[in-house]
């Protein structure tokens, strides 16, 4: 399942990434394989989304979130 498919309040554990270039940027922001990630909320028009990972809140566009595969 992709992170972009989760609804607010749902969580998962990061397994891998589908885009190598984007994965480097995401890992620099704390989205590491094995980390728990929780969807907090979506912007009024649905993009971007707020998630909690590595103890802080991060804003991701759905395009970026769709590259994160969860366990």
From TrEMBL:
Keywords: Iron
Domain Ferrous iron transporter FeoA-like: 1-71
Domain of life: Bacteria
Pfam families xref list: FeoA
Gene3D superfamilies with a match to the protein in the record: 2.30.30.90
Name this protein carries in UniProt: Ferrous iron transport protein A
